[in-house]
């Protein structure tokens, strides 16, 4: 694929550094949520965990939005206690749901069930509350092309990547990353007004460019986000 060619529904936004990216993406997310709130009683924001979103969370939490009318949940969760260092819920509570954003309603994915498989139906019920389409979905991507917790080689991948699937979420145990997990399915994540892929670093840019080429989503699950006709995907990248 020639440099610069990308799937038709993909728009690229490139920044000189991570803080510039975070500031611009926070401003855009604020506009999109504001548009949702002006048209409907509530708006939804689905965020990812891991290390990439930290500067975004810090830029977003001070935005002057009617946060008490915003529902926040996660694209995926590691099945660890909510106060565990690697819990995505902990990250969101400590780093996003502060300052003005403390007024938002948070919907955790982690339940008290022992495994994500056992927690799946409660989680689906929690997500049923969210009006569709979702307003803003912000996805991350791992170096292996996973997005949310849709990992290459995991047993739940076919179910999670089914574009017409009715499952809101899937339980999985990645062979290549720690912790059992629960992930929103691709059909849930793409039923959205705005979908963002937020990635940083040259390595992730190379994986993203590889995923822009036609191929199997089972080897690079992010392909299921990039190669579809349902919604525009805005890719925000910086070195
Ligand atoms: O495990 C996960 O990985 C991805 C990417 O994380 P990063 O640390 O490379 O930014 C993340 O999007 C996902 O939410 C998380 O659970």
TrEMBL record:
It catalyses: 6-phospho-D-glucono-1,5-lactone + H2O = 6-phospho-D-gluconate + H(+). The keyword Hydrolase applies. The keyword Hydrolase applies. Pathway: Carbohydrate degradation; pentose phosphate pathway; D-ribulose 5-phosphate from D-glucose 6-phosphate (oxidative stage): step 2/3. One of its GO terms (biological process) is pentose-phosphate shunt. CDD domains: 6PGL. InterPro entries: 6-phosphogluconolactonase_DevB, 6PGL, Glc/Gal-6P_isomerase, NagB/RpiA_transferase-like. GO terms for molecular function: 6-phosphogluconolactonase activity. Keywords: Hydrolase. It is an enzyme of class 3 (hydrolase). Residues 17-229 form the Glucosamine/galactosamine-6-phosphate isomerase domain. Its EC number is 3.1.1.31. It comes from the Bacteria. Belongs to the glucosamine/galactosamine-6-phosphate isomerase family. 6-phosphogluconolactonase subfamily. Hydrolysis of 6-phosphogluconolactone to 6-phosphogluconate. This is 6-phosphogluconolactonase.
């Amino acid at each position: 694929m020639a440099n610069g060619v990308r799937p038709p529904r993909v728009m690229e936004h490139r920044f000189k550094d991570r803080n510039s990216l975070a500031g611009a993406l926070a401003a855009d997310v604020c506009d999109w949520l504001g548009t949702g709130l002006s048209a409907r009683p509530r708006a939804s924001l689905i965020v990812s965990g891991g290390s990439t979103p930290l500067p975004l969370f810090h830029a977003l939490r001070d935005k002057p939005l009617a946060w008490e009318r915003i529902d926040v949940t996660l694209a995926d969760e590691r099945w660890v206690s909510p106060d565990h260092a690697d819990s995505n819920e902990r990250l969101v509570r400590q780093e996003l749901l502060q300052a003005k954003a403390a007024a938002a309603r948070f919907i955790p994915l982690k339940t008290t069930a022992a495994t994500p498989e056992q927690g799946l139906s409660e989680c689906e019920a929690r997500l049923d509350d969210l009006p569709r389409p979702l307003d803003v979905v912000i996805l991350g991507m791992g170096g292996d092309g996973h997005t949310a917790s849709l990992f290459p080689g995991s047993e739940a991948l076919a179910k999670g990547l089914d574009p017409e699937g009715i499952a809101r979420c899937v339980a999985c145990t990645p062979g290549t990353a720690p912790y059992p997990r629960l992930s929103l399915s691709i059909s849930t994540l793409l039923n959205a007004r705005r979908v963002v892929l937020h990635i940083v670093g040259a390595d992730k840019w190379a994986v993203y460019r590889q995923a822009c080429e036609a191929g199997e989503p089972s080897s690079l699950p992010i392909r299921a986000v990039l190669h579809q006709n349902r919604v525009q995907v805005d890719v925000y990248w910086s070195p």
